């Protein structure tokens, strides 16, 4: 949960998640939909899917116990070198550095590394420095301490150097470079996508929703049918084509009910919701995993993305 998400945001999710799935076995036996619902609004839903898959593998192949060696940890879905290192050092007291963004920033300033931080050579150098430091002390406390240092004192902007316990040893602070390091290369502009959603009701007032395919962005979550605006097409035309591709339906698109903005890591979206009605056909899951007619008051029982929840709140 802490990958790419702040501690304050994670805490209530963490406690609720453990109350629902107190053991690896309980998580493995839960349905993916229940896991995604517990994760709802935390974002980066592939983490939840991987965690669920990892629990299943641990129960099925590893005797229900989380492994303590790197090879077995890396074989689990969703566990890369950083997560494996964090588990090995914090849970099993092994002398392995867990290098996240906060740690990279601290190491860059501590040793005044003035090469772009996203270059492979720089990453290797940071890893080597961290490996030397972790061997000098308790690995669990060291890794957690340096992460907290980066999160609270050695922050990206305006680091609070006078109260930093590493202040006297920090080369960047001595050289007055703490505000300039680490060096990052200019990023490309973040794309902004126009997305569409069809609000379709039947004669009983139920809403049509579809489940996103796995794998894929927000895979396993539910949404209103629709998709991305197509080049050279209006929003309405794009919505008609998307619904036809997803469900085999021909629809009539009328007025725009609302639009919401939402930001993901690598792009932003504006989601336009249109009142729509079926002209021809019955729903068939073509480019979605499933579809359902749902009472409006029952929408809260399904896991949706933040953007779809925003639309619901405005309808």
How would you characterize the overall build of this protein?
This protein folds into 3 domains: 1-79, Orthogonal Bundle (Endonuclease III, domain 1); 95-187, Endonuclease Iii, domain 2 (Orthogonal Bundle), CATH 1.10.1670; 192-314, Nucleoside Triphosphate Pyrophosphohydrolase, CATH 3.90.79. The chain has 12 helices and 6 strands. It has helices at 7-20, 24-29, 32-39, 46-61, 70-74, 81-91, 101-110, 120-134, 139-152, 171-175, 235-247, 306-314; strands spanning 192-200, 207-211, 222-223, 250-263, 268-280, 290-294. A hairpin with a 4-residue loop joins β4 (250-263) and β5 (268-280). It is globular, with a radius of gyration of 24 Å.
How are the strands of the largest sheet arranged? 1-5-4
Portion of residues in beta strands equals 15-25%
Q: How can the largest sheet be summarized?
A: 3 strands, mixed
Could you name the CATH class of the largest domain? Alpha Beta
Number of domains: 3
Multimeric state: single chain
On the 0-100 scale, what is the average pLDDT? 94
Spans of at least 5 consecutive residues with low confidence: none
Spell out the CATH superfamily of the largest domain. Answer: Nucleoside Triphosphate Pyrophosphohydrolase
Straight-line N-to-C gap = 31 Å
Q: What structural class do you assign from the helix and strand content?
A: alpha+beta
Q: Find the count of extended strands (DSSP E, 2+ residues).
A: 6
Helix content: 40-55%
CATH architecture assignment of the largest domain: Alpha-Beta Complex
């Amino acid at each position: 949960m802490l990958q790419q998400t702040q501690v304050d945001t994670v805490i209530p999710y963490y406690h609720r998640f453990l109350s629902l799935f107190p053991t690896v076995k309980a998580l493995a036996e839960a349905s993916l939909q229940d896991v995604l619902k517990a994760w709802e609004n935390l974002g980066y839903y592939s983490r939840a899917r991987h965690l669920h898959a990892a629990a299943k593998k641990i129960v099925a192949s590893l005797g229900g116990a989380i492994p303590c060696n790197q090879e077995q940890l890396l074989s689990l879905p969703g566990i890369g070198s950083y997560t494996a290192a964090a588990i090995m050092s914090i849970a099993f007291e092994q002398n392995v550095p867990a290098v996240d963004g906060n740690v990279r920033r601290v190491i860059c300033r501590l040793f005044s590394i003035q090469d772009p931080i996203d270059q492979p050579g720089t990453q290797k150098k940071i890893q080597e420095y961290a490996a030397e430091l972790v061997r000098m002390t308790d690995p669990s406390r060291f890794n957690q301490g340096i992460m907290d240092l980066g999160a609270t004192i050695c922050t990206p902007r305006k680091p609070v150097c006078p109260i930093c316990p590493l202040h006297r040893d920090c080369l960047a602070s001595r050289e007055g470079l703490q505000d300039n390091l680490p060096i990052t290369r200019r990023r490309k502009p973040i794309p902004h996508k126009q997305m569409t959603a069809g609000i379709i009701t039947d004669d009983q007032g139920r809403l049509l929703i579809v489940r996103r395919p796995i794998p894929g962005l927000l895979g396993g979550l539910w949404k209103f049918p629709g998709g991305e605006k197509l080049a050279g097409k209006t929003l309405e035309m794009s919505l008609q084509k998307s619904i036809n591709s997803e469900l085999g339906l021909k629809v009539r698109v009328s007025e725009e009910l609302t639009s919401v903005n939402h930001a993901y890591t690598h792009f932003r979206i504006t989601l336009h919701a249109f009142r729509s009605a079926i002209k021809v056909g019955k729903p068939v899951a073509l480019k979605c995993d499933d579809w359902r007619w749902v009472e409006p008051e029952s929408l809260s029982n399904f896991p949706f993305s933040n953007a779809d929840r925003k639309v619901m709140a405005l309808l």
